Amino acid sequence: MNLKFVLGSTMLVASLFAATPRAQAESVMLGQTEVRAIRAPERGLSMAQVEKRFGAPEAKLAPAGGDTPRHPTINRWKYNGFTVYFERNIVIHSVRDGA
Length: 99
Known about the structure:
With 99 residues, the protein is α+β, with helices and mostly antiparallel strands. It is 25% helix and 25% strand. It contains 2 helices and 4 strands; from the N terminus they run ααββββ. It is elongated and about 85 Å long. The chain starts with a helix and ends with a strand.
């Protein structure tokens, strides 16, 4: 290989790297976030198990869905600080109020 070609190519590649803009990052410091853990029913519990462990709910909201087998009935129970969502009679989610 020609020595002039190799040296010239190396100089060309080096100058291209030097000419490319440098990536810059900005660091943003956010205030401290307080996360408050609450005890809530976990997925898979039955309505009876939830009521036994957490007591009677403050409110049992009107069921939704249930019009077809592909859209099962969703029940919601409100407790102090969270809402429990049931598919038929099994917990699918527990959501903290204000989340």
